[in-house]
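yo

u said u wanted the structure for the complex thing, so here. seqs first:
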Amino acid sequence: MENLIKSVPEPTLKRLPQYIHLLKKLKEDGIRQISSNTIANELNLDSIQVRKDLAVTGVVGKPKLGFDLEELYSALLHTLNWDNSTDAFLVGMGSLGSAILGYKTFPEYGLNIIAAFDNDEEKIGQSFAGTEVLSSDKLTDMIKRMHINIGVITVPANEAQKVAQQMIDGGIIAIWNYAPVHLKVPPEIIVVNAQLSQSLGVLTHKLAERLRYLNL
Amino acid sequence: MENLIKSVPEPTLKRLPQYIHLLKKLKEDGIRQISSNTIANELNLDSIQVRKDLAVTGVVGKPKLGFDLEELYSALLHTLNWDNSTDAFLVGMGSLGSAILGYKTFPEYGLNIIAAFDNDEEKIGQSFAGTEVLSSDKLTDMIKRMHINIGVITVPANEAQKVAQQMIDGGIIAIWNYAPVHLKVPPEIIVVNAQLSQSLGVLTHKLAERLRYLNL
DNA sequence: TAGATTGTTAATCGATTAACAATC
DNA sequence: TAGATTGTTAATCGATTAACAATC
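structre next:
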């Protein structure tokens, strides 16, 4: 019925983790209340923008006092659905895949990788970070059986589309894609790209621009 | 003198790697010419947007024929400064740092990590992916001596600000930050954040939204 | 109470999309 | 030539920023 809920703008969505990281630290320091202005200063943002962003959580602040830190923190976690973690499968046990699998803090970010897959005979059967690597052949079937919703793709570019299709065949809903390729998927599938090259391009371009300017 | 060059919009900058990945593949397939429409279809973009994006490279297409693939590809690489690679230092040899150091393809993306640092006695002196891990004590000095411009931060959140400062003291210009914390730096320092949590938040939020909708 | 800070409504800014003349 | 595709100029859209009344 309440279908008029406006979905959170993506730029806001990308800032929410920043707020969460900051608030977590302040909470550990024993702070109880915080104003949008303080947050803005810490994160180099505009305080109006901070209030707009925080408004998506539904938390209301108190004039003169600011926001209740604990309440705001919980609400931010809830907005990203980080207050409970979703099971996920990862495919591609190269260096990046292994690193992601070894990352201890993903459950804090709502993600729980419970199985890893690869098609390299040498890797299948081995254990990484306490998780046994399974054959990619079993991927579609296991997604189906275990009702997995999230798939993480860390295979090389030329295998990524095939893996995506296997995931979709199994009924996956959301794909976190690290392979440097655009995945073609049906419109109802959520794909979030996380290629390192994306932010690296911004870095190298800006650096070159800066150096060009300095040499002028 | 030509100080009126408009800098490339950040959304465009983030799409350029996509074009590069696609064009690389097409080039290997032997394609010589390509239209903005074809690119748009492959990447799920609007063809007008593709033309606007490509315009930043300065390459002009031919009506009816489209763009020369080779020329466009080189120009895109050049725009991101990926046609030559910049030396960089990496600090923090945890699982993510090791994975990044082991990544073979960074030189294709304009990045050449030539040394790694850590403050863990156990790791110092060890070799990862052919690179010896050095003590963080030497970081500032070596950046100074070798005129390093890019620093990669993969240390835990509570150490990141300190490492950033050491880099800046050494004269670093650009920081690629994987630590889940906002770095406070002087305005002339370029910081590009690459926290995995950023895109993960988008994923978990959208998935939760989708599931909520399906259950309705 | 006075003043700081909130949340909302309006203005600005920049990116995306549309319209269209130029041209290979 | 006719038609497809380019590049540019204008319109739209959405996010950021500004202004300000409400209130603890």
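The beta strands of chain A are 33-34, 67-68, 86-91, 111-118, 127-128, 131-135, 150-153, 174-177, 190-193. Chain A touches chain B through 63 residues (CB under 8 Å).
cya
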